[in-house]
Structures are given as structure tokens and as C-alpha cells.
Amino acid sequence: MTNESASVSAAWPRADFARVPYEVFTSDQIYARENERIFRGPVWNYLCHEIELPRPGDYVTNWVGEAHVIAARDRDGSIHAFENSCAHRGARLVSAVRGTLEQFTCPYHLWSYSLAGELTGVTFLRGVAGKGGMPGDFDKKDHGLTRLRVARYGGLVFGSYSEDAPPIADYLGAHACEQIQRLLVQRKPQVLGYLRQRIPGNWKLYNENVRDPYHGSLLHQFQVSFGLQQPTMRGGIKLDADLKNTWNHSIVTEQDRASQKVVADAYAGTGKFNPDLQMADPALTRVPLDLGDNIKTTILSLFPTLVVAQVDNTYAIRHLRPKGPGLVELHITYLGFESDTPEQTHDKLLTVNFIGPAGYISLEDGEALRLVQEGIKHRQPGGHEVLEMGGVGPIQDTDYLSQEISIRGFWSFYHRVMQLPPIATGGGAP
Ligand code: FES
Ligand SMILES: [Fe+2]
After folding, report:
1. If you count Cβ atoms within 10 Å of the first and of the last residue's Cβ in the chain, which end, N or C, has fewer?
2. With a threshold of 0.70, does the pTM exceed it?
3. Whose CA is nearest to atom 1 of ligand 1?
């Protein structure tokens, strides 16, 4: 074992991942390894939703770790993904976030590519006036763009650099597939709008944030004040077989109102809970759930950088773009449905105000990430998080929300896919 491996190993003292070394959020070496082992490894990375590519030639750009990638619709309806970097001398091919093109032409020396990323044209291939040009054995077939495998599920489009990424439904897991059907397939979605947020924190802190449903009833003043998310709510978490993906959900019941006393006791001394507070205009909180199943929140957290979420009546795809150990961009695609009435669309636009950088119930999330990133900056090596809420030892589904077990699930898969040295002792194995 090298010195580096030994210290990385020592930093993970528990096999149940109830301790996570802070270095994973700050180290440049770890960030570089993530780009190699995770984003270019056996995972499926979110690229776009099919509805963003309705016609042949439509494309969107996205990031897979540090790699800038184009997803494009071909004439036969298939979707291809390739790097936004010319096979000649590497120039970026397109600068727009999205657009429609017959083919991709590099601005530098005008090499052109098909919608599948094949090299189709080289200007001056045979030289000019009989002089110069490429060697006779230059074969365009050998110089296509760097392609990714593509998989689609329920309208979501994913790309992978690795032949070892499993079939997409297996990768997502049964709970995620079921929820994607519920949220994105049974009604045809349409894009209501986009939003980007820059957060000065590590991308994995966001993964932790969305896997921890109980912070909602503690951090988010709006949710606490107006009883939108309470620790007494019914719900729980369910994991996939790899423990990397979490479905967490909360359910509205008649019990919620009756639980006010339990809630008041739980918040005793925190100064956060004030049941007498009233909103001047409560329209936002009165939008009825439109799926008719009383599920109030559904957060699908999908390794490594995708979240599909329903928060009340706000439907959104959230995607993370890591930009170094201490910075991440959150890209949000807000969704409505083609079957929505004008009133329902109005309501959805109203409840968009819940989620986003200034969202009533999410504005504190970016700040929480910043505070952690700031707080751990000067910690001594060996410092680590404590993840014991909800129990330690086995990583398993729960029928309660006050838990960090699904965060431990994320880390167990992370540890495996990063190929970090095995953890020798301590803590229950997951
Ligand atoms: S770098 Fe693209 S054509 Fe030269
Ligand atoms: Fe939150």
C-alpha cells in the first residue's frame, strides 16, 4: 500500500460510512480522481430530457464532470452524445447551450461532423491547387468526435464513457423507475423554464443535502413556519441495490394537524417554530397536489449528479455541474405537463417560487453548502463528518424521515467506484 493509499484508507474509519473525511470536499487530487473514476467510470450521467430535442438536428450541451458534451437528435430519431471538442486540434464546436443544426462545423478550420459525431468534411482535404492537403491514407472514419454511450429512460437521456455501466433500468433501480414513470411518463412533460445557481460548495454536499429529508424541517424557516414539512410526517427512504440512489418521500395525512403538539415539543428551545405565524398571501401554499396520491415531496437522488424532484406541485430536474472541489453549479429544469389547464400552469409557475436560489424552501440550501465549505476549510487532516441520525450499521430503507442512512449509502457507492482502499475495521458493514 502506498503512503497515499494508507492515509486515504485511514481517513475512512468505519465500514458503515458513519464517518466521512472532510478531504473529500476540499482535495484537488480527489476531485481529479472523481473525474476519472466516477464521471468517466461505470455510471450514467444525465444529459437532457428528450423533450428538449423534439426535431432532428436539435442539440443541447451539458457537462459530464469536467467534460463538455453535446447531445443531439439524429434524423432517425436516435440521440447521440459526444464531446464538444473538435477531433482536429480540440476547439470547442458549439458555444450555445442549445440549438438546431444540420451538422456541426468547427469554427477553426471548418471540419464538419454529422449529428452522430462522425467526421464528414475536411476543408482542403486534397489541398489547394494541387498542393498540400492531408496524406492519402487519411481516413475520416478514424477521426470522429469522442462519443459516449447513450441510454434513455422515461424521457431522461444519459451518457456514459464506460462499457461497464449497467443497463439503465438496473442502474436506476426499481424505486427510481417507478417514480420516473409517476412523475415524468404518465403525463407528457413540457419545459416551463430553466434556472442556474452557482453554489460555493462541493458537489457531494448537495448530494448529501438532498438525501437528508429531515434538514427540511430544521433549516428551512418557511417550511417550519408554515408547517409544509414537519418531522412527524409520514414517509421514508428507499434505496437501490447499490445504495447509491435514494427515493425519499413524504405523505400528507390527516394526522399532520393533530401532530402540532408533538412538533412543538420536538422544536422546544430552538426558537424556530411559531405556529401562530400567518402568511399575508397564502396562495402559494394552497395549490392542490395534482397527482391525487397525497405524496407531498418526492426526491429522487440519482448518482452522481441528478435529482428528479416533486416538491408539492413543483416538478423539476436538478443537475449538478461540479467546477472544482469548492464550487458547483445547479442547473434546474422546471416542468409542467401538456395536459395542464391554464390554471394548472399558472399554479406551477407560482410554486416554482418554492425551489431555486431564492426559493422559499430552498434558498437556505445553497447557504448551508457554503457554510460547510467555509467551516471545513481549516480543519486538521483526520476531521470527519458524523452520520448517525436514524441509526448506524446496516444501510437500509426506513419508514421515517429523520435519517442520514441514505447519505451513508451514497458514500458506500462513492467509495467503491472511486476504488479507494478497502476499509479494514470499525463500524458495521453496510
Ligand atoms: S480545430 Fe477544429 S477544424 Fe481545426
Ligand atoms: Fe433543503
Report:
1. N
2. yes
3. 89
Q: How many CA atoms lie within 13 A of 268 on its CB side?
A: 4
Q: Which atom of ligand 1 is nearest to the CA of 91?
A: 1
Q: Determine if ligand 1 sits within 6 Å of the CB of residue 198.
A: no
Which numbered atom of ligand 1 lies nearest the CA of 106? 2
Cα–Cα distance measured from residue 362 to residue 353, given in angstroms and rounded to the nearest whole number: 9
User: Of 86, 103, 145, which is best to mutate to test ligand 1, by the most ligand atoms within 8 angstroms of its C-beta?
Assistant: 86
Residue indicated by cell numbers 498540400: 132
Of 85, 93, 106, the residue with max ligand 1 atoms within 8 A of its CB, to mutate for a pocket test, comes to 106
CATH code, residues 175-417: 3.90.380.10
165 vs 150: CA distance, rounded Å: 11
pLDDT at 9 over 60: no
Is residue 87 within 8 Å of residue 145, measured between CB atoms?
yes
CA of 35 to the centre of ligand 1 (A): 25
Residue nearest to atom 3 of ligand 1 (CA): 109
What does the alpha-carbon distance between residue 5 and residue 25 come to, in Å, rounded to a whole number? 17
Backbone angles phi, psi at 72, to 5 degrees: -135, 145
Which atom of ligand 1 approaches the CA of 87 most closely?
A: 2
HEC states along 130-160? CECCCCCCCCHHHHCCCEEEEEEECCEEEEE
For 45-153, which CATH class?
A: mainly beta
| Average confidence (pLDDT) over 290-315 | 95
* Domain regions of the chain by residue span: 45-153, 175-417
88 lines ligand 1 (CB under 6 A): yes
Q: Which cell goes with 273?
A: 417554530
The residues near 268 (Cβ < 8 Å, ≥ 6 apart) are none
Instruction: Using a pLDDT cut of 70, give the percent of the chain over it.
Output: 93
- CB distance 108 to ligand 1 below 6 Å: yes
DSSP classification of residue 398: B
User: Which set of grid coordinates corresponds to residue 314?
Assistant: 413543483
Averaged confidence pLDDT in the chain: 92
CA distance 288 to 285: 8
3-state secondary structure of 368: helix
